[in-house]
Amino acid sequence: MESPRFEGQALPCQIGSLPLSDYREAAEWVERFTPEIPLWVQLPQLPGEMITRQFAAGLPGLREAEGRVFVDTEGEDFPGELESFYAEVLEIEEGLRDLETSRFALRPEAAGGFFELERRASSWKTPPWAVKGQIIGPVSFGMSFTDGGGRPIFYEPSLREALLQLLALRARWQVRRLSAIAPRVLLFFDDPAITAFGSSQHIGLAREDIVQGLAAVIEAVHREGALAGVHICANADWTLVFDSEADIVSFDASCFFDRFVIYADPIRRFLARGGVIAWGIVPTLHPEDLARATLDGLEARFRNQAGRVCALGVSAPQLLAQSLITPACGLGTLPRELAWKGLELTRGLSERIRAGISIREVAT
After folding, report:
1. Is 244 within 8 Å of 228 (Cβ atoms)?
2. For all residues of the chain together, what is the average pLDDT?
3. Distance, CA of 31 to chain centre
4. What confidence category does residue 66 fall into, taking pLDDT thresholds of 50, 70 and 90?
């Protein structure tokens, strides 16, 4: 299914995590700072909510021993687990099994924030502009888990196919549930491990495998009528994302804009087909940068960066319409007071942009 066109309108949006331990409080932060695009919040302070493990349940061969989680492909139970996994996938595809009751549904113990969002949505007076979910991206997932010999499962074709099926169906489950909350659903794949492509430490990480992996999970989101975002909070070969069917590209504009903007032709093509840029302009990588950040400083930075993108041949009205304003990454590892400040700055900058950063100022 072709994804619907979406204009971000410089609205504020969060990436995913907060440094809290209470789902209700986290939801209150969301409703205060990003009510136009609420999301379910990940709380890494709680057991089981680290993103590398949050979405892993149901993967064949998944084991935990001595504090290590891995995929045991040598165990005698693995062939049967793999067969059962694909039988369930086939049943869902053929309409013989409900996705809602399958292994691909999120559980409260792994994603309590998702169910808190659903509970609170019933009391909203008006639907939000959109609602956002997130899931780990295929490369980050596949590089985080290894087989018994310590080799990342992304390198093994059969395991890579299984993890893609797992993420695709888990993404579809999210979209179906979130579609009941808002008219638009954004599903972000958080995939910082894409930055490993081209490095000497990961020479086995092939472009074709990354491209195919992204295509598989993005197609799953589009199949449910939602929009797919890819979030990478580091320097990357951005052609891997721009050349995909992603609808939203989320990047760290605070630290890596100069390395992002060099992809002039891909950026132009992406925006020409209606893509949205999520500007992670509120710093999160270095807490001291966030502590020093001011709204005036961020506004000046955004005008400069937006102007440089306009200089590539993009009109200022188009760019502002096809933008979101976000923190550079999730806020879950920051001190509480800094996370609050980061959200204040995110909302404040969005409000200034929408209230009248001059198109002429951006374009010059």
Report:
1. no
2. 94
3. 19
4. confident
Q: Which amino acid is at 269?
A: R
- pLDDT confidence tier of residue 1, bands split at 50, 70 and 90: very low
How do beta strands 68-71 and 62-65 pair? Answer: antiparallel
DSSP labels for 187-230? EEEE-GGGGGTT-GGGTT--HHHHHHHHHHHHHHHHHTT-EEEE
Determine the Cα–Cα distance for residues 270 and 248; give it in Å rounded to an integer. Answer: 9
Q: Residue 319: phi, psi to the nearest 5?
A: -65, -45
Burial class (CB in 10 A: 0-12, 13-18, 19+), 212: middle
Token pair 């958080």 is at which residue? 190
pTM: 0.94
Rounded to 10 degrees, what is the CA torsion of 281, 287, 289, 290? Answer: 60
3-state SS class at 326: strand
Residue 51 host element (H or E) = helix 51-54
DSSP classification of residue 100: G
Whether 360 has a pLDDT exceeding 60, the answer reads: no
Selection from 241, 243, 254, 246 nearest residue 327 by Cα: 254
Under CATH, what is the fold of the domain 11-57+111-363? Answer: TIM Barrel (3.20.20)
Distances (CA, A) of 80 to 103, 292, 321: 16, 55, 50
| Residue that has been written with the tokens 């165990």 in this structure | 75
**Largest pairwise CA distance in the chain:** 67
Q: Which residues contact 225 (CB under 8 A, 6 or more apart)?
A: 1, 3, 4, 175, 179, 185
To the nearest 10°, report the CA torsion of 16, 19, 24, 30: -40
Q: Residue 69 belongs to what H/E stretch?
A: strand 68-71
Distance CA 248, CA 251 (A): 10
Q: What is the DSSP letter of 73?
A: S
Q: What single-letter amino acid sits at 48?
A: G
Ordered by start, the domain boundaries in the chain are 11-57+111-363
Would you state the structure tokens that stand for residue 21, as one six-digit string? 């331990």
Tens of pLDDT along 338-353? 999 999 999 999 999 9
Say what the pLDDT of residue 46 is.
93
**Three-state secondary-structure class, residue 240:** helix
